[in-house]
TrEMBL record:
Protein name, as recorded: Stage II sporulation protein E (SpoIIE)
Pfam families: SpoIIE
PPM-type phosphatase domain location: 182-399
Alphabetized PANTHER family for the sequence: STAGE II SPORULATION PROTEIN E, STAGE II SPORULATION PROTEIN E-RELATED
Highest taxon, organism lineage: Bacteria
Entry annotated with the keyword Metal-binding: no
Organism listed in the record: Nonomuraea pusilla
Amino acid sequence: MSPAMGEEIVDRSEGFGERLLGLLLDRARLMPPQLIAPLIAEVVARVGGSDVSILLQDYAQELLVPLSGRKLHVGRPEPMADSPAGRAFLHAEVVEVAQARGVRMYLPLLDGSDQVGVMALTLDAVTDDDRRLLRRLVALVADMLVTKNSYTDQFFLARRREPMSVSAEVQWSLLPPLSMSVPQIEVAGMLEPAYRVAGDSFDYALNDNILHVAVIDAMGHGLDAASMATIAIGAYRHARRVFVSLAETYAFMDDAISRQFGPDHFVTAQLMHVNITTGELELVNAGHPAPLLIRDGRVVQQLESATTLPVGCGGEEPRIAEHLLQQGDRVLCYTDGIIEEHVAGGEPFGEERLIRCINRLGEDLSEAVRADLRRLSHTLKGERGGHTSDDATLFMIEWRGGAADHLAVLD
C-alpha cells in the first residue's frame, strides 16, 4: 500500500552492516559457547578481516590471553603494559597498527563500560565505515561472551594463568564487574593475590543518582574468611535493595555476621553513598584504614569518620561522615593488607609509603581510572617485594559530575 498524502516514509530496508549484526543477534540465543568463536571469525571474514583473535584479561590483570577456538588465531599472551592490545583494553580505545600486509586493529570488548577483553583482526585497509561497523560488532561480541560465560568454564579457564584456591573461586564468583564508567562517575577495583584471595571483597551498584559502595575484609584466611565475606556481601546487597540507610545497612550486616559466626568473628567494612549529581559522599568506616582523597594527582587528605566497631562486634549505631567532592576528585579505598605487608628490614609498608607512591604516579595520570588503579596496584606490589602475604584490595572512585540525560535522546 502506498503512503497517504503527507505521510512520512520510514526507511526500514536492511543494509550490509545490519545484516551482519542481525546474523549474530538471530543466532546468539541458541548458540553453544564453543561455536561463538567460529561464528565471529566468519562474520569478520565477511568484512574482509583475517587472523581474528579474542583476548581476555587474566585474573591478575597482567596479561591479555588468547581464547582458543576453531577459526581463531591463537598467538602468545599480550602484556597489558606496553602493547597495542593492552592500550586498547586499558583505555577503551581502538588501536590500529600498520603492518606489511595491512592494518592490525585492536578493538576493546566492552560489557557496558567494563572491559571483557580485546578483539584483534587484520584488514587490508581501514575506512571510517569499517571502524563504525567493527565498533558495533565488538559491542555485540562482548555481550555474547558475557552472556555465555554463565554457561561454560571455557572463558574462565582461558583467563586462569595458575591454580586457584577454593576461597578465591568463591570470591571471584561474588564480585561485580571490576570497573564501571558513566559520564558522572567511574569506579574500578582490584583484588590481590588474585589466585589465593580469601576474605577481601567489594561491591557496588548505581541506583538512580546514588552510587552504593562496600569494601570489606573478613578476619582470618581460607574458606572461613571467604564464607564470612560471602555472608557480609549478601547481607549488604539485601539491605541495599530494600532501600535502608547506611546506618541500618551496617546494623543488618552486623546482625548477620554475629548470628552466623558468633562473637569471636568480625568483618571490617567501608560503606559509602555517593550522589553522582552533587558529589555529596556519606561514609561509614567500620575498622578500615580511612579512604584517601586524591585531587589533581595528589593525596590531599584522609576522609575521616567517627570510630565504628567492625561488623559482627555488636557496635552502636554508627555516625555518618559527610564529605563534598570536587569534580575530578578520586577516592581510594584500601584494606590493611596494602599497608601491613612487611618489607625489607621487617617494617610494615605503611600509609606514608602508600601516599608517596600515589603522589609519584599522580604526575602522569591518564583519563581511565581502571588503567591508573592497575598501575598503582602493580607498583605497590613491586614496592612490597613482589608478593602479597595477606589479602590486599584497592577500590577507586572518580567523581566527574554533570548529567547523562543526553544519552537517552536520539539525534
